[in-house]
Amino acid sequence: MTARRSPLRRRVVRVGLIVLAGFATAAAVKPALARPDRPEGWAISGLDEEIRDGKSLDRELDEELADVQTRKAAKRALAADLVAGRITLAETANGFLAIDSRPPDRMALVRHGLPGRTDVEREAWSAVQHALVQIPHADEQERVRRQLEADLARLVGPGPNDPAPAAGGRIAGR
Q1: DSSP 85-103
Q2: Distance of alpha carbon 125 from alpha carbon 152, whole angstroms
Q3: Could you check whether the bond before residue 36 is cis, i.e. omega within 30 degrees of 0?
Q4: Distance (Å, rounded) from C-alpha 74 to C-alpha 71?
Q5: pLDDT per position as a tens digit, 57-106
Q6: For the chain, which residues make up each domain, given as ranges?
Q7: Between the CA atoms of 155, 79, 86 and 172, what dihedral angle is there, to the nearest 10 degrees?
Q8: How far apart are CA 72 and CA 42, in angstroms?
Q9: Model's pTM, two decimal places?
């Protein structure tokens, strides 16, 4: 009589052979998948490098975010001083200019995104906007807006393309 193997043992052997054949096929098709120099044996080629690159990018983005948050906090503090009357609009605009001058390419965004003929005028507009968002009450905000727009007009002077002040001290179109 011949010894018969149990059905369970046949399945285990069959699955083992299939897995072994799969690894052999993968190694033949893509030899880079088999990395005997690594303790764990098999790895996906380049994955470690991608992970290092991802971690490096995370660090760069974290540094950029911290820089943006620092600039925002500095501008909020200057705008609060402006609203409280501790500094003038010109001083605030110059402070904003100093903040936005680092890094140098930041000024391109300011020049593109804010109205004005000069960097100081653009930063003054930015300072006005930063100041106004700190004032919760509409009537107080309107009073401060009129004052800051008058300060801005004195700071930059009339220009050939400047909008004329409308009734109530507002700059038309702003």
Answers
A1: TSS-HHHHHHHHHHHHTSS
A2: 8
A3: no
A4: 5
A5: 888 898 889 988 999 999 999 999 999 999 999 999 999 999 988 877 78
A6: 10-44, 59-158
A7: 40
A8: 48
A9: 0.60
